[in-house]
Amino acid sequence: MLAALGLVIALAWGISIAMLISLLHVGPSTSWRTGLSSLGDTLVKTLPAEWVGRQDDVATRAPPRREEVPRIGQEQPVPSEPGGLLTAMVLNTVELAIVGILMWWAVVVSLRPLRSLSEDLARRRVFDSEPLQVKQVPDELRPLILAFNSLLARVDTAMRAERQFIADAAHELRTPLAALHVQTEVALRAEALKGKDDALRKLLDISHRTHRLAEQLLDLARLDAGLHSTGLHDTDLLELAGHVISEFSVQADSRDIRLLLSGTSCMVTCDVDEMGILIRNLVDNAIQHGRDAGTVDVVCGHVMRNELQHPALEVRDDGPGVPEDERAAIFTRFYRAQSGTVRGSGIGLSLVAAIAQLHDARIETGEGVGGQGFSIRVLFPPRDPPA
Fold first, then answer.
1. Where in 14-124 does DSSP place strands (E)?
2. pLDDT at 57
């Protein structure tokens, strides 16, 4: 587009420069000046006499005959002052009209590729995220088209993740829902009271796991959407962990697991709801994969790394643990450890990793209570010392 506009400007200047060169090269004694004088007088005659107030000799002056050849020293016809102004106005108007037409042509030609792009978009089907072609687009509009293509790519990624989430959720919910159906039928068909009680206990356990799975899926969807429900606030991890642990007292007592909380107060800047989800999934994972009559210890405090003091939260158990070659993979979504005795959903630790990443925290793994079991430590960025 700039090239076309530059051509228009060059043509406009070319017309003016050609007129100036013609005047300087040929000189004032030319039919050009005579014609301009005649044009000025004609324009003046079209105006009412009271507007101009011209003299009779100016009104009746006739241009020299074509066959007359001006002699050197002979006075040339000069347009009157109103005639000269009107002539200049007419010439400027003609020049501006020519420039306007040329600019209109340049804009139409330059923007013609946009019309083809708009027609291409109108013909597209829903969820078609193919990038737009930028070969014929003007250089000035190319960054806009590239940014739009980048937006299409991000939308496509989000849509793929949404479709994958729906497929994964349907797959994960299918098994517990089928189990609920089976245990309900068993309870209905059982004739003995003990058989009904056993089926109902299994039904209650499956219902609890299904409820937990649904919560994790909803948390996962909210994190994928990038939504922060409460915003970032200064929060005491020890106090928040105490509230979360109280939710698991019944679950821990059912397996005679000691649920301990220790450490010191440590402040982090976080989304309280997301941090609650992180602690909840760490504790739930430790209880599920720990041993019966074991210990789950939640520790808050500070850890030194590279001479910096990091707020830290650690959850450890004394269960069978996780092999070192699987410790990185267990934070992948829907991954289930091959060595585990309890089959989980594969969502909890992926939520922990996602929330830690949102808070610029990193995760360390190691041995659990008493050198056995498994521990997960979340290190948060060091806080600036108070002024």
1. none
2. 46
pTM over 0.70: no
- Tell me the C-alpha distance between 74 and 111, whole Å: 56
Give tens-digit pLDDT for 170-192. 766 776 777 777 878 888 888 88
List, for residues 349-358, the tens digit of each pLDDT value. 888 998 999 8
Instruction: Give the separation between CA 279 and CA 313, rounded to whole angstroms.
Output: 9
CA distance 91 to 35: 13
| Rounded to 5°, angle at Cα 315 from 310 and 316 | 125
At residue 49, the pLDDT reads 66
Residues 6+ away with beta carbon under 8 Å from 186: 195, 199, 202
Residue ranges of domains in the chain, CATH in brackets: 2-123 (no CATH), 142-221 (1.10.287.130), 230-379 (3.30.565.10)
Q: Which residues contact 366 (CB under 8 A, 6 or more apart)?
A: 374, 375, 377
Contact present, 130 and 148 (Cβ < 8 Å)? no
